[in-house]
Request: fold
Amino acid sequence: MCAMKQLEERHTSQEIKFLLWCDRMDLLAIANVRGEVSLHRLNWQRVWSLQPSDVDYTVSGMAWRPDGKVIAIGYSNGTLLLVDVETKRILYTQRFSSISCVIWFNAPDLGVDSPIEDDSSLFLSDLPDLAWDTGSANKKISDENLVDFKVINVLLVGTTHGMLHISIFGLFECAIIDLNKLIDEKCTVLSVHMANNLSYLYAIVLTKSGLVKVITLQTEIFKTHSTELHMIAYKHGKIISLLNYLEGTISSIEAAWEIILMEMDSKLASFASSVPEGAVAADFLDLLLFGFPSYELDLFLSQDLTEKGLRKLGHSIECSYSNIQKLVLKHLTKVAQNIAYYLSELRGMARMEFRYKILGLQESAVTKAISASGSFLVKGAEVQQVIDHSMRNYKAFFRWLYVVILRENEEHVPIEVSKVSQRDIIFIGEFLKNFDSLPGDSKQAGRSKYFNLERLGQYLVDSNLVIPLDTTLNPWDVFLSNHPGLFDNDLIIKHHHEMSLLQEHKHLISSIGDVFNEPKKQIGNELQLYQILNIIKVDNYNDIRLSLINFNRDITFMAIVNVTEPDGIYFIEIDSSNETQVKCEFFYFQSVENFNDSLSQPLKIIDIQFYTVNVLSVLLEIDNQQRTAVFAQFPVTLARQSLMVVDKNVIDSIGNLTRINACDAPISTTLRVLDGFTAAKFSVSGSRKVSVILMQNLRTCCLYEMDVDEEDEEEEVDVTASTAKESDNSIQENPEVMVE
Reply:
């Protein structure tokens, strides 16, 4: 009998679609029909839950990264999220066509020839903390959960359109395979697996004609160039992390600038609405030149703005400008320098053609990306220059306006602020120039704005600058204009005078994308079709239950069930070391001893999953009125002795297979009757020695501890539905609970 002890029985308010154990920690990922994903501990304590971005999106696949620190969640709209298990923060987002399966594979036997040595800390300073959102505590954007230093792991994503996407660390997409072309028929990817030696990849697909096929690809390049792939993927992960930080920095700059605009709007909106369009700057200029305000301006200064309001407005704007200046100097500039550093390392790698040329890493593409990072740094310096001018001009304007309000109120004006030099007048004039919204500015900003506040805002929209910085007297620009042949030199950093900061940012992202696009094509071309196995015929996608696992470096096991004919399992062994020799056998489960002497039909198979490399867990059902569930542990090592070599067109050999009762000797599968259960699916983990069974109503979960002592099993206390707790109501979500 299976030694298992029931720990919990819990109900959920929504039907459950997926259950997935983490093999490194006692964590269970649950996805319901509404697209919500939640993590639970073994005692059902909820760690966190993540809602989908749209109510119509549902989860179509989940996979734990082998170290358990990140979980990949695929949605029906093709969105794939990499989520930090500890913080629930979304580390990375990718877009595919409709996702059908997500598998995260670890290569335990193939690390790198030598550990990756990252000496960047000798040359790069740590990036300062950056607040991600308003009201949140400062959180440092860390890449420690993005990339694994030691062992390659591969994220495999299959789609309903027959596309297979292969990504190292889930970040570096190194190949895209169109499986439809390989079999000359449209298909849906059911599952994907790789041999432990990384030499072969097995894609299990369902064709439009209803045939389940195993497409075997030779992936020798992953084995022979594992070190080089690891290095490229590691650098790529570092750059992705820095780009995330850069995006957060730009968002913070935009938020600080929005505060300035909102403050100006809130104070000057009433005045702007009382005068003709474009007259705001004109009234202030008249006041500056002639010393007499218009009636509307006089009313605004004395009643709406006031001295106290001007002080508060000036302080708020000064703080916002200071924050922007800090973000540009301490965040934006540093992260751009770090990106340039890792790109330079990639260029050095690209120059070692004997190692990296086959992977598609090209020096020319990396050089263009380095140039783009240099242009971004130049634009950042330009923004800093504009900020300095803006702060100088707005201080002169507010100091002058403060004196005007004091005089209007017939109050004493301190001597130190009453003097206005000709230079101050120039600064005030520059501040008021283009003070009213520029043509098209409202459209770029996304909503109506009364004021443009001269030049800084134009750098934060995705369009060319309306007022480019005048660099005609810049010695470097003069030198380049006199020597046009130098401008096209790769060593010369380009200054794009007409581009905004956001445009430079997009250009940088595009250039970095080009660096890794060619490896994606090149590596994809290196993956060659080896063989195609035709397995069984089914009616539709939902009729298949399958599970795969690597027995050793060369042998892969696959168990497959057609639930419309659920009387047995097709157990297949593929040996990559023996010209991918295929062995197969059909096993069914029937035990008169355990159930009923009159029982003559095999047990119905509900679900299957490998518990360990030596054990296949099988969820069965007795064909009686109660539809009682049965849990079976099928010994793989004993079953292997019964396998027979079959033709690679397995479907033609099915009639020749021997139907073997897995409950008879020598296999003697252990069974456990779950009285009162009508099961729908389950999830098991041999490394954690746990299982969870979902009942037929798709709302009730029963958690079990596996491989317990017989004494512990006898002490098990039955948990009934009347005492089971409603998890969604009784369990308080605790976002502060940290994963150990």
The chain is about 35% helix and 30% strand. The longest strand covers residues 99-111.
